[in-house]
Amino acid sequence: MKRPRSNLLARLRGDASVAVLTGAGISAESGLPTFRGAGGWWKNYRAEDLATPEAFQKNPRLVWEWYNHRRDLVRQHAPNPGHFALARLESFCKTFALITQNVDGYHQRAGSANVSELHGNIMKSRCSGCGHECEAGAENWKDGLPYCSCNALYRPGVVWFGEALSAAVLRDAFITAENCQVFFAIGTSSVVYPAAALPQLAHERGAYVVEINDEATPLTPRASEFLQGRAGEILPTLVKFIQ
Ligand code: OAD
Asked: Which CATH architecture has domain 1-32+79-119+165-243?
């Protein structure tokens, strides 16, 4: 990795308030497919068939098949050095907030404490009837479908396309972006809103925006610094430079 600019290191060594937005790219090195990159889910499947309320209404078995497969992948794999480096970074910073679009829970497993899950968590289920929430595996499965005790179907505890994000989680994410001094956008294609608006807002409010991605995105021209490469290599090196 090329040495980060000294003003980034100085900011991180000082008392800068740091916000981080992560996307599927940070879990790619754990072995979880991304959505839009090579081998990404949306290269082979249509989001409309798997990740919308309409898809669940039309074919809940198919939707659950896909989510169960992804739950298996999350169980089989583990957080990587990128996740662990962010947990280390949090321990150096006076103010630190991690906002993730990922539903795998790997940041928490790596030790990050202040994590907001914008798109929910794949290891949770929510009843489509009464709204009851439970952990993966606690559902009552019958003929490939999970039922709640109220007899309605459970759905995955994630946010689908066409659904609103939790208003409270989103409000806090915007407040974080508005008030931070350094904003990291890591492993996200920066095309899915409202998450993609967060680094833009941070930039408009004067934050130093650092993008870490193995390729350029729509955010790149606005980033104060673009660290091109793998998050699992760049983040541990960055943390070493700060120490
Ligand atoms: P994407 O799959 O759209 O983008 C992943 C990004 O990570 C790409 O820009 C890659 O270049 C980059 N990348 C891949 N491997 C990397 C690595 N090792 N290090 C650094 N960068 C790497 O994933 P998201 O931006 O997270 O939403 O997608 C946003 C949302 O769209 C997801 O939360 C999901 C999806 O459809 C829903 O399902 C609602």
From this structure: 3-Layer(aba) Sandwich (3.40)
Q: Residue 6: its pLDDT value, please?
A: 72
The residue contributing the CA closest to ligand 1 atom 6 is 188
How far, CA to CA in Å, does 214 sit from each of 27, 62, 91, 183, 242?
A: 13, 32, 26, 18, 22
Tens digits of per-residue pLDDT, 97-116? 999 999 999 999 999 999 99
- Write out pLDDT tens, residues 48-84: 999 999 999 999 999 999 999 999 999 999 999 999 9
pLDDT over 90 (residue 4):
no
DSSP annotation string for 108-177: HHHT--SEEETTEEEEEEEETTT--EEETT-SEEETTEEE-TTSSBEEEEEPPTTSPPPHHHHHHHHHHH
Q: Ligand 1: does its nearest atom lie under 6 Å from the Cβ of 21?
A: no
- The CATH number of 35-76+125-158, from 3.60.21.70, 3.30.1600.10, 3.10.20.740, 3.30.1370.10, is 3.30.1600.10
Counting atoms of ligand 1 from 1, which one is nearest the CA of 215? 11
Beta carbon of 40 within 6 Å of any ligand 1 atom: yes
Atom of ligand 1 nearest to the CA of 102: 33
Please tell me if the CB atom of residue 214 comes closer than 6 angstroms to any atom of ligand 1: yes
Q: To the nearest whole number, what is the mean pLDDT of the chain?
A: 96
Q: What is the pTM of this model?
A: 0.96
